[in-house]
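name: query_chain
kind: protein
chains: 1
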Amino acid sequence: MQLGETLLVGSFPLLPAGLDFLEQAASLALRSHERFPVLEISLLVTDDEQLRDLNHRFMGIDAVTDVLSFPAGEIDPDSQALYLGDVALSLPRAAAQAEAGDHALQSELQLLVVHGVLHLSGYDHANTDQKEHMWEVQAAILSQLGSPLLYPLES
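structure:
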């Protein structure tokens, strides 16, 4: 399974060295798509200002958020790669949530990546049943990663 590029926008001294832990989180969340030999997503790690702008422009919500997902679901006719879409997350927001929850930034970032990829895969939490199912799948993936964090703070 291949993943697309990870794009870092800005300088983030808080970001743990290396991004392998984010790729591992995304890979586990993508396992449900095993019929496609190549899966691609884009991961944008940015700041609150850009997440707020994306949230306003594409979701109509003028507020900062921690993670956004933009599903694509397109198959490249040449490579047969399934491009699921884009996940954008705010590193400053993730750092603040990690501090508020008294856990490692790496755990928070893994949660946000898994959460975003699950949205690309069709999961949602618009109602109680959907939320329970998504949280269950999310918790199982995070548990496989060895993360002590299984649910968002505002669950």
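note: Strands lie at 6-8, 39-46, 67-75, 82-90.
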